[in-house]
Amino acid sequence: MTELSSFHDVLFPLGVSFGATGGPERRNEIVALTSGREKRNARFSQSRHYYDAGTGVRSLDDLHEVIDFFEARRGSLHAFRFRDPFDMKSCRPGAAPSPLDQAIGVGDGVSDRFPLAKVYGAGDDAYRRLVMKPRAESLRVAVATVEQDMASACSFDGETGEIVFAPGHLPAAGAVITAGYEFDVPVRFDTERLSVNLKAFKAGQIPSIPLVEVQL
């Protein structure tokens, strides 16, 4: 039997992803009280992203590339990387990632692991999104504003989503650890079939290709 929770470390066709629509979804429970007030409760601590890659299909070549990718993933069975066209960097869209972009922890002289994250908002209202699939070649880390060597001082653990510091390079107590990166979203196909009509496609209609974020 094939492992149901497997992840294929491959990228969804990039040209198609840049034309996709979608974004984050929140699941909140809202109860109206007899007083007219509401009680609201967040069901999930992390948002979940949904996309429709069908809007990114511009040609028959794009369509065939997606079909090939769908078959290789066995439909919704295996998750994969998706480049979110709206949110794929630790910094602003037009900037290049800097090792000072995102604060991911504070050293205590003992801890060697710090979860990679991106923060939205500020203060008590800030939302801390865990980043599990950074682009390895773009990842930069700094301790107390000093950039670290990713080959010797620290590395990224793809299983846990953490920056891991090597012995002898542990962040000192009070030292702020920061990181910059580009990243992908782990997703799967949110359908068991792709329905394609080439006649309709040539007339300007494109298929729906739903994708949904998965937790690793």
Portion of residues within helices: 10-25%
- Distance N to C terminus: 20 Å
Q: How many individual helices?
A: 3
State the order of secondary-structure elements, H for helix, E for strand. EHEEEEHEEEEEEEEEEEEHE
Query: Pairing-aware structural class of the strands and helices?
Result: mainly beta
Radius of gyration over all CA atoms, rounded:
20 Å
Largest sheet: 7 strands, mixed
Q: pLDDT average, as an integer?
A: 92
Tell me the strand percentage band: 35-45%
How many β-strands, per DSSP?
18
Q: Please tell me what the overall shape is.
A: globular
Give start-end ranges of low-pLDDT stretches. none
Description:
With 216 residues, this protein is mainly beta. Helix content is 10%, strand content 36%. The protein is built from 3 helices and 18 strands. The protein has helices at residues 14-17, 60-72, 198-202, and strands at residues 7-11, 21-25, 28-32, 38-42, 48-52, 79-82, 102-106, 113-115, 117-120, 127-130, 133-134, 140-143, 146-147, 154-157, 162-165, 176-180, 183-189, 210-213. Strands 1, 2, 5, 6, 11, 17 and 18 form a 7-stranded mixed sheet that branches. Strand 3 and strand 4 form a beta hairpin. The chain is globular, with a radius of gyration of 20 Å.
